Amino acid sequence: MVTTRPKVLIVCNQEVRDRYLAEDDLRRLSVFADWEWLRSEGGKGFEPNEDPQAIAALCQRAPDVDAIVVCHGAPRISREVIELGTRLRFVGELEGDRFAYRIDTAAAWERGIRTVDTTNGSSYPVAEWALALAIISLRNAGEQFRHMIEPKEYRRPVTDFGYIHAELYGKKVGLIGCGHIGRRLISFLEPFHCDVRVYDPYIPKELPDTLGFLLTSLDFVMSDSDIVICLAPLTPATRQMIGRRELGLLRPGSVFVNVSRGAIVDSEALIERLRRGDIVAGLDVFDPEPIPADSPIKRLPNVFLSPHIAGVTAASRWRFFSLMVDELDRFFHGHETLFDLVPRTLANRRGEPATRTG
């Protein structure tokens, strides 16, 4: 436990400062630490800012702080920054697409610096939308909606998928990926008494016993589930992981939901499988995005589409920093952090074979 107040440097652009850093959380941080915001404009998306002036500004402040928190606009926390940060003990990423693109984790770990990522702040609403899409798709609500808005008398659709397969209660639910989203979704499924099965080669083997699911193969998830929900991150190993063969394993009457990344699924193969008319899909993501205006996926009656909005809520933007303040509070008071970046995280990013250790 520290006896002096730690100094925290927050490095991000103006938009992050305005949209992510809630005043209540800054006040919470001020209770136990002194903090400073270093404005840094540049980079694109999750890519580090490579502007020499931005890097120089970060290097200048590094020796005087105990923790650095980065987000959009920040330069990479490189080996140089880490070596200059003689007091540095904690590096955190607010929203980095889960895989520490802005942190040289190897250099940090060599120094015993704690590395944390709170990108899972958006996992909360994604898990909710995954549940919603599963229920919507079981009712084939996309087709029902199309019929309702037609300028003519409503008649029950011929396929009537939503009548035969409508209820979630007691269904077999297969998850592809069981990170923060999957674990939260499992808790949401508990009242429905679903039989949950999971494919994820990167999770600890203790998890199935703790959360009560079957850890199995991708083929089993695809072939023996009433609802398959894709939650995997996009990595070299998962790109187009679900292709024609895997989609062919879906049994008639099943539902396929994707709230992760569109490129995990072969889009042409998915359209081909949906054209058979015996399954329904609920898709928040697609490849490419935005969906081309003339894409057949927009015209299929057995599809419900949303425009990649699962994780886009005001609360999720504030939650990134709120979770980070929690982590800083725990760390500087001698407790364990919860959202550590570890070698298993980076193995997942690179698509390397996983070892299921804790």
Q: Any descriptors?
A:
Rossmann fold; seven-stranded parallel β-sheet; 358 residues; alpha/beta; 15 helices; five-stranded parallel β-sheet
Describe this structure in words.
This protein is α/β, with parallel strands linked by helices and 358 residues long. It has 2 domains: 7-117 and 314-350, Rossmann fold (3-Layer(aba) Sandwich), CATH 3.40.50.720; 123-305, NAD(P)-binding Rossmann-like Domain (Rossmann fold, 3-Layer(aba) Sandwich), CATH 3.40.50. It contains 15 helices and 12 strands. It has helices at 14-19, 23-32, 52-61, 79-84, 105-110, 123-138, 141-149, 161-164, 180-189, 206-211, 218-223, 244-248, 267-274, 314-332, 343-350, and strands spanning 7-12, 34-39, 67-70, 90-93, 114-117, 172-176, 195-199, 214-215, 227-230, 255-258, 280-283, 303-305. The strands form 2 sheets. The protein has a 7-stranded parallel sheet. Strands 2-1-3-4-5 form a 5-stranded parallel sheet, sandwiched between helices. α2 (23-32) runs parallel beside α14 (314-332).
Q: How many strands?
A: 12
Provide the helix percentage: 25-40%
- Spans of at least 5 consecutive residues with low confidence: none
Largest sheet: 7 strands, parallel
| Structural class computed from helices and strand pairing | alpha/beta
The helix-strand sequence is EHHEHEHEHEHHHEHEHEHEHEHEEHH
- If you compute it from the alpha carbons, what radius of gyration comes out, rounded to the nearest whole angstrom? 22 Å
Which strands sit side by side, in order, in the main sheet? 8-7-6-9-10-11-12
What is the CATH architecture descriptor of the largest domain?
3-Layer(aba) Sandwich
The tally of helices reads: 15
How many domain regions? 2
What fold name goes in the CATH topology slot of the largest domain?
Answer: Rossmann fold
Mean pLDDT: 93
User: What distance lies between the first and last C-alpha atoms, to the nearest angstrom?
Assistant: 25 Å
Strand content: 5-15%
CATH top-level class of the largest domain: Alpha Beta
